[in-house]
Amino acid sequence: MRHSMSALSIALLLSAVAAGGEETMKHILSLATPPAQVGKYEKVELPIRVEREFANPFDPCEVELEFLISDPGGRSFSLPAFWGQDYERQDLSQGGTSVAWCYPTGPGSWKARFAPMELGTYTLRARLKDRQGEATSTPVTFECVPSACKGFLRAGRDDPRFLEFSEGQPFFAIGQNLAFIGEGQYVTAPKAEEILGTLARNGANFLRIWTCCDDWAIAIEASKSAWGRSWAKDFPIVPMPDSTQDAGPRKCVLLKGGQEASIAATPSHRVALRPETPYVFAGRFRASAGASLRVQIGSRNLESPGSGDWQRFELRFTTDPGENWLGRVAFTLAGGDAAWLDAISLREAAGGAELLWEADVNRPVRGYYNPLDCFLLDQIVEAARRSGVYLMLCSLTRDLYRESLAKPGSPEYAKATSDAKKFLRYAVARWGYSTSVAAWEYFNEMDPGKPCDEFYAQLGRYLEQIDVYGHLRTTSTWSPCARDCRHPQIDIAQEHHYMRPDDKDFRDEVDSILSQVRWLRQQAPNKPVLVGEFGLATAKWGLSEYMKQDREGVHFHNCLWSSALSGCSGVAMFWWWEVLDQQNAYRHYKPLATFLADLRPAGLQPTVAATAEPRLRIVGQQAEDRAYLWLVDRQATWWDLVVDKREPAPVESAAITIGGLKPGRYTVLWWDTREGVPVGRQTVAAEEGRLQLAAPPFTRDLACKIVPAAFAE
Fold it and tell me: Which of 141, 193, 647, 669 is most buried (most C-beta within 10 Å)?
C-alpha cells in the first residue's frame, strides 16, 4: 500500500510539473491578431512574439516555429514561420545612381506570412518546438473574401505544356533575365523596381532573378565576407592561435607582414549609418608586447598597444550630419610580426542590431540567410506584385553545393540535401505567400555531370509537403541536360543557349530558337518548357559587340516572335539586361503582348501552314479552331540587317495555305509586329478544313491571327 501511494504521488507530481511547464511555455508565444478580412490569394502577415532567444534562429533543428492553419473546408495543415530583420529604407543618390539605404529597425523578429486560397473562415495558431518543449499560441481567425487576384502559376490542367493561374486563366511568359541586383551592379534595388514598372507598361509579365549571387549581388545564402571576395585566392582567415586542432576550431583574422602591415574590412554591402548617432566599434586583438594595433574608421583613429594576450579595443564615435555610410575600416600593425583580430562589431551605442555582420568569420555559410538581402528580396517581390510581373527565383548558390553533390549516399551529399531543405523551408516561409513568385529554380547552371537526381527528388518531395501553394520547380545546367528535363520532380524543363560565332546557327536567330525549343519539347513533351537564358555572345560567352551594334534590336525582336510561336511556354529570356535597358528594348515586348492578349495555348500544335514563296518562313501554332502565325523573310536575319546592312525588298504578295481547321467562317487579322496593331482584316470560309489566304505586302515580318468569326465579333 505504501509503495502504491508513493507511485501515485510521483505520478501526480510529474503531472503537476508537466502542467506547470506547459503553462510556462504558453507564456513565451503569442500570435498577432490578423485583419478581420483578407482577400483571396492576398498576403496576411502576422508578427509572432517569442519570449526566447536562439543561437541560430534559422535552424529548424534548434527551433521549429510554424503556424497551424484550419481552412474553411475543415482541412488542417501547417506552414513554417521565419525569423528576419526589419529595415528602414531610403533611396539615396550616389554618383547619379539611386541606391537603397537600408538601416535595421529594432531586433530581429518572428513572422508568419500566408495567402488564403479558399473563401471562408480561417483559424491560425503558432506552435514552437525547441529543446525545452513545445508551446502553442491562442488561436486567431480571419475571413477570406473575394479578390481580383488570379492565384498562383501552375501547369495547365487541360494542357500541362503551358502555364495557367489557380483560377484557370492562361499565362504566357513574356520577359527576360534581371539576374544581378545589387549596390555595385548596373541594376540597384531602386533600378530593379523601375525596370519592373517599365516591363509591365510594355506588356512583359515574367522575370528571372538570381538570389544566389554570392558576394557581388543579392544572395540569400552566400559567403559574403568583409575580408575578401569569393574569387580571391587568399583569405586572411585562420584558426585561432590558441585553438586545439579539433574538427571545427574557432577562426579569426590574421594581420601579418611586419611593420605597417594593413588590412581593410570591405563588406560586400555598404554599411548604412544613421546621421548624428553614437556608435561603438569594438573587437579584440592579440599582438606581441611592444606592438600596437591602429584602427581607422573613416577619419577616426584609435591605437591600442599589444600585451601578448587577447585584449579588447573600442572606438566610440558619433556620425556627422549627412553621414549615411560607414567609411573605410582598416587595421594596421605597428611593430611586431603579426596580430589576430576577433569578434569585430559595430552597433549603435544604445544597442540594436549588428551592422558589420559580414566581419564575423565564424558565421556559417550554408544555413545563414543574409538579413539585408532577404529584406531586399521582400521589396522586389512586393514591387513585382504591384507591377503584375511574375518571378522565377534562382535560389541556391551553386558553388556552395556543387562539390558536395559528387557522390550520392555520402555524408557530404546528405548534408547538402539537408541544408538545401532548410533553405527551401525558409524561402517558403518568407516568400511562398506571394503569387508573384512563379517558380523556385534550384540552381543556375549546375554541372550537368553531377548526379543530382536524388537531390532533386528529395527537394521535390519536401516542397510537396511544406509548400501548400504548389509553386513550380525548375533548375538549369551549363549545357543541355535531358535527365533534368525529364525529372518527375522538375516541373519546368529549362535550357540556356547563346548564339556564338562558332555555332552553325549564329547568323540565323530564328533557326537557333526553333532548334532549342524542338530539343526541349523532345525531352519534356508534357510539361512547360522555357529557354531560361538566350543572347548573342562571344566564343567565350561574353557580351557580343554585335549586340551593341544592333541598336534596333533586330535579333531581339526576331527571337521574341519566333520563341513565342514555337510551342515554348514563354519567350526566350534574354540575358544581357543592361544592354536591353540602355537600348530601351522593352518596346519590343508590347506588340507581342498585344498580339497574344487573347491567346488560348491549350491544345495548340505546330502549324501546318505553308507557302510557295521561298523567301518566307512560317512559324506558328494552331488548333482546330484557331491559329497564330508569324511570317518572316529569310533575308531579314540580324546578320543581314546589322552586319551586312542589307535591307530586304518588300514582300509584295504571298499565298498561304493552312489546313487542319474545322469547317466554318474565320476572321483573319494581319498584324504589324512593330506597332502591335492589325493592318488587315478579312473573313474567309474554311473549305474541307483548309483556308487560302493572301498576305498583304510587308517588309521583314508579319503576324497573323485566325479565330472563329463569331469569336472576333
Answer: 193
